[in-house]
Protein 1
Amino acid sequence: MAVLFSRIKGMLFLLFLPCFCSGQSTPPLLRFSILLDPSNMVYFRWDHDEQELMTFELHVHTTGWVAFGFSPHGELPGSDIVIGGVFPNGSIYFSVS
């Protein structure tokens, strides 16, 4: 679990690093996508490279926050959770637990 957590934390850092370091946002070329809910409020895009590094993008219509889980078995127990959102002043936060 600790290894998975550290890999996810590193993956999130790699995922968000281009957004914070670049003056302009260039959308990554992601080959796979799916709408995750029937009301089309959650859109997920992803891809992976030869070294199995996964890059993903999550678009969510929300009231200020979103949570996303990673699990080797697709279940909540034992999963790693990412929580992110926007404070009223416009600053962004992310937390991994």
Note: The first helix runs from residue 2 to 21.
Protein 2
Amino acid sequence: QEEIQEVKNEGNLEGLFNSLDKIVEEAKDREEPAWRPSGIPEEDIRSALMPYLLKHRSYLRRILRDKEEENREVAESVLAGRVRIAELQQQIQDRQQAWL
């Protein structure tokens, strides 16, 4: 009895058992079955990670699309600025020629 009590105290087993009881109580109202490992680690990891990875990929694609659009707008702005600079340089040259 003493050894059992000592193991319970050292491992905080009562606290663990209470938390297990709480989890079981909370799970009673769930309609979907609890996740269980299949015994094949690759499939277990895939089933757990794929929804997260697909959601993250979707998020990254959306960010990429936004950045590409932003870069396109900046490139158009730069080209318009270069055209404007070329026009101004031409005007300056024309006015210089008019003074000479």
Note: Helices lie at 2-10, 13-27, 41-99.
Protein 3
Amino acid sequence: KKAMSNQQQPANIIFESSKHLESGEPEPQLKPNLLTLYSMRFCPFAQRTRLVLQHKQLPHQIVNVNLVRKPDWFLAKSSSGKVPALIEPAGWTLIESLVTCDYLAGLSLSL
């Protein structure tokens, strides 16, 4: 199968970084009041959270980070340095796939 290009992304993904950002790179400009998922494209744990976001059709943005050379701004958001890290609109950070998925399961489109 052919991988999805950025033009074929589902409509509920507002932004997804095209590469895995690493140490020394600036933090991307993100839309406020939107779920933000810090991820690594090939991480099965982060994929679990991506699947729940897609299933629930929740608008969100995804920032892919290099897990070997983590940016400082990512470590400020996820002190453990793990993905998935989900930042919800009020600013709370949720880490670990089971925690993020449980949280998302309780959300509705009215977020």
Note: Strands lie at 13-16, 35-39, 60-64, 85-87, 93-95.
